[in-house]
Amino acid sequence: MSTNPYLELQEQLRRLETPPASPPLTVQVNGLQQWFQQTLLSPESNRPQSEQSLLVELHKQLRLLATDAAFLQSAKTPQTQQQRQQQIGDRLNTLQRYCQHLLKPEDNT
Question: Whole-structure pTM over 0.90, yes or no?
Answer without folding.
Answer: no
